[in-house]
Structure formats: structure tokens, C-alpha cells
Amino acid sequence: MNEHIFEYESTGRFNQSQFIVNVQNRFSRNSTIGAYYVLGRANSDTDGATTFPANSFNLSGEYGRSSLDVRHRFVLFGNFRAPWGICVSPLVLATSGRPFNIIIGRDLNGDTVFTDRPAFARDLTKPGVVITPFGAFDTNPTVVETVIPHNLGNGPGSFNVNLRLSKTFGFGNETASNSVPAQTQRNDGRGPGRVIGMGGGRGGGSKESGKRYSLTFSLNFQNLLNHTNEANPIGNLSSPLFGISTSSGGNFGGFGGLNSNAYNRRIEAQIRFDF
């Protein structure tokens, strides 16, 4: 019986540069708004321990865009005190697309791994040339042809609007912090810098009500506009689904969050008791 043994090594290269802008302002005790923007670039010659190069015998052509190379990330968040003591916490997230690898889907070099990449087509009439929205590729490249770079394809971006509405009812004796002057209570969990994945700050709580006990009712809306955020498309040229996204981008369109479950609009109701 023939067995294939694959070697894993820790010699991969990863280089990343980021430009980060973080702006926050507390206009009053009842309103806070902030924005966060990241311009980034990331290059590597591997996408992790579970990935394979196009040619296991030659790694020189693997350095290129990393799977983490998301050029633009933007977050807009806020907390506002509406009438009747309702806390409104919006959260807007937008990212540009993530790269994905384009492969032939066949083993051309005999390393038993089906990660070979095509070459840029020079003759569109040659058998095996595939014309795609990402370019014209030669799926039968010769040794003198230029193989396409790692992660040449670029997937769809994502956009999410999340919202949290909460109302707190306090009861019991007043807390000691309730007698502290307002200017010393700015860091109460609703101030600048608090970006919460569920759509803003937690809102409510015994600190906010000034009472020993509090009961907070809240509604969390994830992807409020029900915008469809697609996952990266299929990158296998041998697949009839090449270039098509077959699943959702998951939580926050792949931006990150509490889990990676795929869904569009999601509404959660929550009750919290603080004591």
C-alpha cells in the first residue's frame, strides 16, 4: 500500500502593514459616536498549516496576497439616550473583499496535491484556455509560461447594519456611585472606545439606573437591512460553479463576531438582571 507523507514546517513568511484611524467623541452625557478605519495590506507564502503550495517542489512562486489581505475595514458605532430612557446603540460594519486562490483542480506536477494554478493565457485559441471574470487562464501551462500569483481572485465585500435597543428599570436602594458628580462618571461603559459586536454597548445595568437592582430588556438586530453578504466564490476552474459564491459570509459577513453561523437578518430578545 502506498502512503503519502506530507511535511509541515514553520518557515512561512507573513508581512502586514496597516494604517489605523480611530475617532471618538462624546457629545453629551446621552450621546457617544465613534468611527474606526483600517487600511491594510498583507502578503505571505502560505495561508496556514492546513494549506499546500501549488508546487510542493518549488515554493519560489508562492509569495503573494495573504488570505488576510482585506484592504479596507470600517466601523461606525454609537450610543444614544432616546426619550423614555431607551438606549439606542447602532453599529455599522463594512469591509472590502478577501482574496481567494484560483486553481486548476488537477495535479500537474506529480506531488499528489490538487492545488496547481493555471498560467496567464497567451493564445486564447489554445485548448484548455478558460476565460473568466478574473482573466483568461491556461489550464495546460508549459514550463515557460507564467503561473498566476497566489490568491489572485478577490471575493465580495460585506456590509452590515446592527442595532441594539434597550430599556432599564431600576429598583431598590440607591447605589453609592449615584451620589458621585456626573463628571466623574464618564467611564460607565457607554463612553468612547467601546465597540461591541452585537451592535453597541450593553446598555442599562445598576450603574446606569442608580439603583441597587435593575432589569434590562433589549432587542438586538443583526444585519438589520437583511443585506446578503456572500462568502468567497469557488476558485476551482474544474468546477462548474467556479466564480460563484455558494454560501453566506457568516456572522457580520465574515467580519468577525460571536460565532461563524451563516444567516442574514437575525433578531434576538434579551432580559438581564443586575444586582
Key words describing this protein structure:
275 residues, mainly beta, eight-stranded antiparallel β-sheet, three-stranded antiparallel β-sheet, 13 strands, 38% strand, elongated
Q: If you had to describe this structure to a student in words, what would you say it looks like?
A:
- It is a single chain.
- By secondary structure, the chain is an all-beta fold.
- It has a domain at 14-98 and 155-228 and 245-274.
- 1% of the residues lie in helices and 38% in strands.
- The strands form three sheets. Strands 1, 2, 3, 4, 5, 11, 12 and 13 form an eight-stranded antiparallel beta sheet that branches. A three-stranded antiparallel beta sheet has the order 7-9-8, with no helix packed on it. The protein has a two-stranded antiparallel ribbon with strand order 6-10.
- The termini are far apart.
- Residues 179-204 and 256-260 have low confidence and may be disordered.
Q: How is the secondary structure organized here?
A:
Elements: E1 14-28, E2 31-44, E3 64-65, E4 72-82, E5 86-95, E6 99-100, E7 119-120, E8 129-132, E9 135-138, E10 153-154, E11 158-174, H1 206-209, E12 211-222, E13 266-274
Antiparallel strand pairs: 1-2, 2-3, 2-4, 4-5, 5-11, 6-10, 7-9, 8-9, 11-12, 12-13
Q: How would you concisely characterize the structure shown here?
A:
With 275 residues, the protein is mainly beta. It is built from 1 helix and 13 strands, in the order E-E-E-E-E-E-E-E-E-E-E-H-E-E.
